[in-house]
Amino acid sequence: xxxxxxxxxxxxxxxxxxxxxxxxxxxxxxxxxxxxxxxxxxxxxxxxxxxxxxxxxxxxxxxxxxxxxxxxxxxxxxxxxxxxxxxxxxxxxxxxxxxxxxxxxxxxxxxxxxxxxxxxxxxxxxxxxxxxxxxxxxxxxxxxxxxxxxxxxxxxxxxxxxxxxxxxxxxxxxxxxxxxxxxxxxxxxxxxxxxxxxxxxxxxxxxxxxxxxxxxxxxxxxxxxxxxxxxxxxxxxxxxxxxxxxxxxxxxxxxxxxxxxxxxxxxxxxxxxxxxxxxxxxxxxxxxxxxxxxxxxxxxxxxxxxxxxxxxxxxxxxxxxxxxxxxxxxxxxxxxxxxxxxxxxxxxxxxxxxxxxxxxxxxxxxxxxxxxxxxxxxxxxxxxxxxxxxxxxxxxxxxxxxxxxxxxxxxxxxxxxxxxxxxxxxxxxxxxxxxxxxxxxxxxxxxxxxxxxxxxxxxxxxxxxxxxxxxxxxxxxxxxxxxxxxx
Length: 487
Known about the structure:
Elements: H1 2-8, E1 15-16, H2 18-45, H3 51-78, E2 82-83, E3 87-88, E4 102-108, E5 111-117, H4 118-138, H5 146-169, H6 178-182, H7 196-214, H8 218-227, H9 244-251, H10 259-278, H11 286-314, H12 319-333, H13 342-366, H14 376-389, H15 391-394, H16 397-400, H17 412-445, H18 454-459, H19 461-466, H20 482-485
Parallel strand pairs: 1-5
Antiparallel strand pairs: 2-3, 4-5
């Protein structure tokens, strides 16, 4: 498919598929619903004094990413001209490209015979890019300054997202064609149906990197010893001298100020995910319908499993764990959605429920200092990686249309080679995104205020960055520590 698609780009004879156009537009509109829903999820799971801050990160993700993606981002990600399969030509689709051209979606006898208007495809991909940035924002809650978030958003929109999207999704991307380029498996490379790597693994690892670069919040520092007794404490995870009273106050404030809002946000994300996965077929065909069915089956199974596990282990039907389970199932199925049958989606959903519960508990017990109250890394990072790695296992050829069957469908040696290619691509992407994001925050900290001061954390970023609440910022208790608290 990548070779056929690449050869068809720029072919002015491609006719417009009306059903395909409607399908892609519907998907774009549904995916957009996910952007404010991510903000609602963060707003519901954080403290009340940071609700507006969470919502604003999602809103700003749309504003920054959409503008940059229209101007040069789409060209960087999907241009038919490439620099070694690593990045595309930024001006090839400048401002959305030629309005009279089409993006191929229907192939007959090896030739493109139909497609959707290029503008429709640009809009669809724009929503995926925006969701990825919004997910990163939700994973770095309560202490990143809004101005620093805008700066990172600019960096991510201009460089990281187009780079990863080109590597994995572009028909001439290095990882998309890795099997052909290396001679390991002709016609194959990393396959990511709707964003297990490009969206979720990337968002999970970027959020993890930023969280580590920022250091633990004052609340987490105050409660670290009781949650992670075996952690070797570092300077970035202890309460500085003079801030003990403020830390004690912070420790008494609970996360999850509005669980009903988080539940509604999750339900809307589930709804939007039908467009995220279903419309990634680009045509209303068997693959698209199969993807939509797989999406909801995996989400339902994962939510049920996580909820029941929380009852068995913790003695209660934990609403937050149910939320995390549903989202984990949606993430797990995303790279597989258009490649698997309903039975496989059920298995993947059950697996996602177990993985999400286990990863969340491990984070709470042993990695509490990472300070991820939304669960961005266990939900998106872990499930995004594992789900993407399982594509060469569960891919059913009569659903996927891929030249290689998954291991469970007789793929044999070819499937194992594909698994190796898939794993290599995932590892490189996650490593690249993690270190690039970590370095960006650390370097930026030398020039701008990236992390909120402890006094600002205590007052809440709704007041500090957005002027929402009428509380006073607590006076500094130790002057020399002011610089450290903003590092």
